[in-house]
Amino acid sequence: MKRSVEVALVLMVGLLVAGVGLVAALGGEDTDFDFHWKRWQRSRTFTVEVAENGTMFSPDAEPLDDDGWPLYGNEFITMGYLYPEGTLTCDSDNNCNGVNPDGTPEFPDRVIGIWTCRGWHIADAATTSSGIVINTNQTYAFGDNPTANIITTEGFELADFNLEFERAVTGGTGEFSKARGMQIQEFLGWNASIGTAYSMTFELSR
Length: 206
Prior knowledge:
AOC barrel-like, eight-stranded antiparallel beta barrel
């Protein structure tokens, strides 16, 4: 427990530093989020893309397999960048863009927020290529203030590429303070930082 608390504190500092950097990169009050929100709020259904920063993936020290991949029961936290729909491209081998090998965003001018994900492996990561692999909480922090406009979701995640599945929207802040509904997630592939890439569609109740 002590080790887990120490790891969590280190990660929180890292996330806050990254958030400050992102705010600086976005700059000003009239961010891309404001532009997209004006369009999104008409239907309350919209899609964003997530590019995980693989350098920020931090699993527990155990259980791991011999190659360092998380096994059943391993807890983790990670983070990434939110992009507008249509930013990411992936080839036929599910190799995607969006993040540079050092973890920086490949398209910094298009970043519209921060994504964080924490949860547990409920299948062995290295050997699971189909079906449920993790159970997670995801936080989508839109705009230049990482606490102002948030959506949170809960649910299982599948290991299958290009297969849509549903998660529950559990709440939010700011423009999303009464958010309820459904998140439709699709695993697109892996990027150069050894992070994942996703398409996320939100269908929010009015």
